Amino acid sequence: MQLVLPRHLRARREKIFGPAPSHRLDGNAKARLWATANAYNSANRQPRQHQGPLTWASLRVLRALLWRFHGADGGGRCFPSYERIAQAAKCHRDSVCVAIAALEDAGLLTWVNRLTKIRRRERDLFDHWRSEWTVHRTSNGYRFVDPLERDPGRRGYKSENPARPQNQEKKTEGARLDGARVIPSGGTIGPLEQTEPSAFALQREHAAGDRALAGRRRVDFHA
Description:
alpha+beta, 3-stranded antiparallel beta sheet, 6 helices, 20% strand, 6 strands, Arc Repressor Mutant, subunit A
């Protein structure tokens, strides 16, 4: 629901103090996220778009977050700054900001704002020293959305095109397929039918017969 609403109508982003939240991902989950990003581009590509909604810079930012920064501390956290992401993805800092927003719109990640308190001592208007606490935003804590977590009932990916061979119904009228044999509905497995020999088998038989004939000719010649 949050992805459907405009940004100014969405709930305010969560702000936390302390370390970034931990969310572990294995190599298969990262590969699923990368495949989902490419599938999202293919499904939503508009005319005159080179890649799709996710540009080359957005894909480089996603690759850097997944395989460069995620889990770098050993605890499944991902909290790099915009400057470090831009250096790893080889793009501008402003491109990182746009790319992260596009990745959130695609449903690939989300983040929380990390805050910290800093105590400062300064003079007031009467030239008296006083202490003041200020809140600063350090970096974002990113959390990736695994496609299997978003859709728990799905355990594999296949094309949604019903014309594809792997999606066609593999049944015949009143029968079901079991390997190379057709089993009638409610019947038993009968003996395998005799099939015609293939062309390769016939060629091997002819070659064996020619070798045997040549051997007999050599024996008759020496005799």
